């Protein structure tokens, strides 16, 4: 039973974390409009127009990566029957691989890639796991 619960924890963390990530990316354009003519949902449009982006345009991508990882890690650690922090960090590693892939696919500024890879994934997974462990111990 605990193995099933742990597997479900990881799946839930990845799926819900991904939804949070995409949700934030989806609303980002209505909060901070992209440069004129850029379709943020199209990879080719992003590649062709990345040079038009200002630092403010990178706020929501960072929040999406950090928030999705945090929520996914929290959920995985909260649901897991054992090894909660390991599962939280595994969610962080999963999303980090996505971030590394994204860094190769999109010509984002070096400062953003560094901030994103260093700050949005493993630290947020650790924070999410830590918060989940505290919540579980209070229950």
Mind sketching the topology for me?
Elements: H1 2-31, H2 43-49, H3 59-79, H4 84-105, H5 110-119, H6 122-138
Helix pairs in contact: 1-3, 1-4, 3-4, 3-6, 4-6
Structural descriptors:
mainly alpha, 6 helices, elongated
Folded structure, characterized:
29% of the residues are buried. The protein is 77% helix and 0% strand. The chain is built from six helices and no strands. The protein has one domain (2-138). The mean pLDDT is 95. It is mainly alpha-helical and 139 residues long.
Briefly characterize the structure:
The chain is 77% helix and 0% strand. The protein is mostly helical and 139 residues long.
Inertia-based shape: elongated
> What is the domain tally?
1
* Termini separation: 21 Å
How many helices? The count is 6
Which runs of at least 5 residues are low in confidence (pLDDT < 50)? none
Q: Which class best fits the helix and strand makeup?
A: mainly alpha
């Amino acid at each position: 039973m605990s193995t099933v619960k742990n597997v479900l924890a990881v799946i839930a963390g990845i799926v819900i974390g991904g939804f949070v990530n995409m949700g934030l990316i989806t609303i980002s354009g209505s909060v901070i409009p992209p440069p004129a003519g850029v379709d943020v949902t199209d990879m080719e449009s992003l590649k062709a127009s990345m040079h038009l982006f200002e630092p403010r345009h990178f706020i929501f991508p960072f929040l999406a990566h950090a928030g999705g990882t945090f929520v996914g890690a929290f959920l995985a650690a909260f649901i897991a029957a054992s090894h909660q922090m390991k599962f939280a960090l595994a969610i962080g590693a999963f999303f980090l691989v996505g971030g590394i892939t994204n860094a190769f696919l999109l010509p984002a500024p070096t400062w953003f890639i560094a901030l994103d890879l260093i700050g949005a994934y493993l630290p947020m997974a650790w924070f999410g796991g830590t918060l989940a462990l505290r919540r579980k111990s209070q229950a």
